[in-house]
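Work Package 3 (structural annotation) set out to generate three-dimensional models for the target panel prioritized at the project kickoff. During this period the team completed the workflow that converts sequence records into discrete structure tokens, so that structures can be stored uniformly alongside our sequence database. As a representative example, we reproduce one entry of 869 residues exactly as it appears in the project archive.
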Amino acid sequence: MSHRTLLGCAVLLITFTSAYAQETQRQYLSGKGSDDAVPWEFFCTAGAKSGVWTTIPVPSCWDALGFGSLNYRQDQPPFEQGKYKRTFTLPPAWEGQRITLVFDGVLTDTQVWINGRSAGDKHQGGFYRFSYDITPLVKFGAEDANLIEVTVDKHSADESVNRAERQGDYWIFGGIFRPVWLEAKPPHHIDRVAIDAKADGSLAVDVFTGDDGAVPRATRRVAVRLREAGDSVATAWVMKDFLGKEARVETKMTAPKLWTAETPNLYELEVQLMDGMDGKTVLHRITQRFGFRTIEVRTGDGVYVNGRRMILKGSNRHSFHPETGRALSAKISRDDVLLMREMNHNAVRMSHYPPDEHFLDACDELGLYVIDELAGWQKSYSTEVGRRLIGQMIRRDANHPSILFWANGNEGGWNTALDDDFAKWDPQNRAVLHPWELFRGINTRHYRPYDEHVKLCNGPDIYLPTEFLHGMYDGGAGAGLADFWEAILKGKATAGGFIWALVDEAVKRPDTGQMDTAGNQAPDGIVGPYREKEAGFYTIKELWSPIQVRRVGDGYEIENRYDFTNAKDCTFTWQLRAFGDVWGNGKPHEVLEEWKQSVDVAPGDVQAMKMEMPLRAKDADALAVRVDDPAGRELWTWVWPLKIAEPVPPTKSRQLPFAKTLRMAGPGKLTRTEWEATADGFVQLDYAYTCEGDVDFHGICFDLPEESLKSMRWLGAGPHRVWKNRLAGTTLGVWENPINDTITGHQEWVYPEFRGCYAGVRWMRLDTTDGPIVIAPQDPSLFVQVLTPRFPEKPGEDRATTSTRPLLGLSRHARADLPDAGLSILHAIPAIGNKFHRADQTGPQGQQNRATGEYRGRVKFFFGDPPRE
């Protein structure tokens, strides 16, 4: 990093005479996360495994480990307590330092004793960092000379805390679920810093001190300097005298590297508190990471970062793991951010509380815009409690450049008396949202049907739905996204949106080992509880790819939807591919030739390009292009057919076992069914039928014994099934899928699902106990249905089993009707709805199919023995 000019306060080059600058020392009393938790003694007062002292890993959620009671949505009496204790030893070098005990998050009310003496007032509020000065309570000398005792009430004594945190639509956990540590600082130390670093290079640093007053404040100075994260080259020091417990240092950097989700450039700020009498002695030093960027909310227009209008592409994320509840690790956080980046997210909303700090660290490093949220699910904290918790949240999180907004609760869970408190702690004065309503020019309305969604996209207020397309089972999330997203991209005052939700929150019950989704209340995810990728994952990945490649006539069109990245910085890898055959011969996606060809397309532009096809194109089945972002992550791979060879049967087909069961799929009347044994060995069916009106589906179908099916292999769009309003997310190729009985988001998460409709099928081989059956539709615009998809409950019967507030009918829209058949050839397939909307409320693709007369088709079949090897 080259030196850059700093302007503002006095800039000095300083040679310090102290042997070292005193830094904050940290000693963990727990693990740093769920993956390295350490045992504490533990006593649960009620429920399972209660009434006896044992041990428990810390951090953890005790109910996720089989203690007490495991509840969804609200606590159930008797309200258990967890009592914790352990001994610890302080390093001798810490004597004379200020000793602080820090809890990063405890659910919910916390009382602490050190060596039998209270550490301070009970803390209330489960998702926030809090601390105690325990300097006068600790002992030095003997090993394990100190005893910490903690009593945690799962249910708070403050009813506003219970309303805000423990009556939400999610699992209610208890325990010390985030790390616990000790800090040692010099008596005269820096308590915290708050940074405002803008895109023009201006930098303001508010430095707050904590000390015992022994050093006159007028004789102290603060010095700051910065460097790019990981770089040893630093700028010159900027100094300022302290006149109180707070000082602001202002300066400016020339041409800093800016932070965005596309370019997550980070800097490190080193802050030193100095004895001003000699100007050299360093009393305390800390380092803080940050980024230069400017956020603007332009009324009636949009949200801007560094002068560019943003379209936020995100989902809602709970801090959740099926085996550890809310107790997570830095690896889980980083993996979740990478998962969202893989899905082409550029944003995430924290629902419905602040996350672990290591999650925000990962967002800073890898690039995601963040909405950080004060807890409150349809009910709010009292003003007194909320004011304290806002301070705790922002003191911890203020310097993360990834955070664009604060959210004051969720869906009515906002206390409006607290709206102006966020700015008291945040020198950047980031905007505050009320998720679910119009507030200060930003409309975050949730779950609007398509027609209203389109109107809101065009103003007059900025439209940023913080929840939309509520996933449930296989409905929502990706289903309907193509239409909803097109409206957002075309809107005059849009800022993007956040899909509900990232993860199916199924707990692995410690009592039975089964996966529990609280009936239909928790299977809302784009991915499963262990982050298994559902079909919607790939739909979102394709639709949200910032580079879009389209085949137009004899050429191709490149659209760059990035905000800051030129397409030439991405890698375009073109391939000629050959597909293996129906019998498994050849590689499914053999690359015959590969070359790279980049395109100079500026952010927001579209450019046509011609492709000079290589000579080997005559031997290829398809042309593919994979686009990788500048970090080497795949954005998406598009595949277009060049020629498709029809499968060759090894012998003549025997009589088809299901031919006599041919019938209409859906309404209508068969008018022609002609079977013919062809010279190439197939049995060919020519059919025709008439159908009129608005219908969910239409076509022909056959019976096929479900118990006879073993697997399928096909050339077509895959590997996932499709719905009418979720066709994106599949690619042309040869795919294989063993039979499974997965119901999306319900009990098992084996993907891809077997049952359902498949698009673009050129041929499909069903392996049965009686031999293979090959189906070759002569029109790839048709759909092949294999078996009938299942759903968890019938409409009106989907009540939750673990909640005291059973919810009726929540899944009635997240289902679709298809023929009750083993095999269907369909000319039209149904769309699927979501938790709150019928399919026809999700946009044009969600409407019923308009049938208008006669439909014809030709399908070739083979039933017999596979070729001998």
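The two ends are 63 Å apart (CA to CA).
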